[in-house]
């Protein structure tokens, strides 16, 4: 006979959800109600009830958007349902939609005229509505006044500029933005874009961006009024402020038209659900899909951007703005998936044309900055990485090959071949595999080597750059190393510093192939230090030429894998200061090598764990075993970090942290973590803005980078007052990244530090405690109280002790569960008697909770509860004694029925003995004396005991 597990039916699931709701387990209730809604046997009326119940759960979790959606669904099925109306009214109020909330409240009063609960709500909403109308009238007046100053015929330049700035402030509020749009601002702003005053133009663009932000209707109206071609012609102006402002406006338009932020929020919610409940039955989140109108609008902006990549009339800053715009939106993960559309246009060829531009050539018309080529590399890499299928990658490879075929095919002009070699350098810095493929094409390497042997310095410079980038990966450059080394050595002897430093970097790369392995030397003994010394010489360049210092920094990024080089560099104060000063330059390509140097100096790179058994096996098989250098031991690393911090490295890290590059963000997070490992530097990191920079690093980047940044934040929160380390709103923002560490996939140390940090944060105020709950922190924190690991269990108990000060958490203990029983049993366990901190935390939690009668009743259901409390109250430890007596006091004060049961146990005897023992109140025993005296006075009041003479 085959037994089939019973599948819970609709009624069972509904009742189960109700139980979860009553016990305060709102997430579990939501999950159960959702399963019940998926049951096919549920009637429409029943589904209406479920939607209504789920809305109540979302309300408790302060997820007002979801609660509002469910309440609306319930009202569609059960029109004018009082509970659904009331819940939606609450949602609207919390979402700031006062008018909608007032309508629902009025409708509820109409449906239930005798409902007394809604009357005060209606009065409050009416007052809020009146205030909003006053504010709106005030906003109308402000907008009218600012319009006269901004768009009037007056010639006062300062007043016009100030009026536009005031309108920007008003436009940040929905009411202000709506009123400005109604007043015909877009038409007037379009005229101001022709102003000769750049401040007015930038202000107008910023105002348009504020109006378009997260509002599809307004964004479409702006796009209709100001043509796409006009926007991009403004972007091409040789003014970095105007170019950046147009780039921001176009970015805002695309985000609003595609509703990208809503899509990202929906996807994040789905990912959180999968992480929490597992992937079963969830499927993948659907990709971003747009209606034809909005797809056409976003495509128009994209095609215009692609068309202007190699526009000869564009300024260098304008070209960078176009490339940065495409980088932002080209990916599927963070943008709107333009990768495939690039293949359908000539976008790849246009990027390569810009990447190959050499300003020194006389016929070059395209203007580029020091960041343009790096932007091209990043964009080419992002497009290539988007393609998973071989077919798409082959198409990409064909388009790239066709460009180089045309460039190398024209042998009449050596300049075309130089441009092709420069474009190969960009590929080798981006999609390396594609660049390596082109490099392997017959005749390409020969051209590169021929240019290197040319007497022309420009030829030498271009070829040596390509050789340097070609030798980046040890496993893929073996074919050219033999030919490259003699040329690099020859060019290193050049009198031209620009060529010499590039050749030096190439030699540095070849010399670093041994990595951190002290026994693997690619060059002769002392050669690595000699190369490093040459790099430091360029770094200390008295002319402070940024290009030379950048290349010297790149050379050190490879050489600082050697511990001797690390020590020499930190001893060279001038070179170290020059390295840190690179954070101030505008060239973005300096960030990655500088961050790599800091990672190497602090030894914060990833280290593979060596398993002893495998080590023995490797020795037996006579395999090469890497050796750690003596100067890579902890004491040397600690000394190097001290010197770096003293030199001002933290300021450099803060300046660098504004980058969008995920790999660079990971490096910075690693260095921050290495610095805050030492307690003495945590205050300095906060003082210099490190804590503020770590929050975005922990929210966006690679998984490793986010984890490192979150752990650094946790370490800061452990030893510092959170109000000082994370002032204002920042103490709420830091909750989410730290909660990432409270996960079974993280290490025990990361779990422990996160729990300690959350304990400190939870002690601040109820806003922080609510944020921890809202981020789903309670079940994650509570999970560790069941752990066998002593420190994790204790940290969890201490964090929960602070969290129960929140009424919502307290309600979770009041439901039908054994949470209270577990706390009492931890206090009673013989095995845990040595863990005083755990018992203290559990007693503290019970002391807070026992002010509620239902908790007192739960305590009394635990076997030998009186012996547990009496035994602890009789101990010498004043902290434990006070907590136990506080619980007894709360139980007696909760009611005469419970007090009678307390009197029937040995606890009365304990109280009487302690009264005699403690004696008169002193500063040390004041709290203990208060608990004893209050308990006995209450028992006398209940007439359960008689006062003595």
Automatic annotation (TrEMBL):
InterPro entries assigned: ARM-like, ARM-type_fold, TPR-like_helical_dom_sf, TPR_rpt, UCS_central_dom
Any one Gene Ontology BP term: cell differentiation
Gene3D superfamilies named in the record: Leucine-rich Repeat Variant, Tetratricopeptide repeat domain
Principal location class: cytoplasm
Keyword Chaperone: yes
TPR repeats mapped onto the chain: 10-43, 48-81
Coiled coil: none
Pfam hit, one: TPR_8
GO-annotated cellular components: perinuclear region of cytoplasm
Domain of life: Eukaryota
Recorded GO MF terms: Hsp90 protein binding
Signal peptide: none
Subcellular location: Cytoplasm, Perinuclear region
Record's keyword terms, sorted: Chaperone, Cytoplasm, Developmental protein, Differentiation, Myogenesis, Repeat, TPR repeat
Protein name per Swiss-Prot or TrEMBL: Protein unc-45 homolog B
Species assigned in the record: Lingula anatina
Gene: LOC106150658
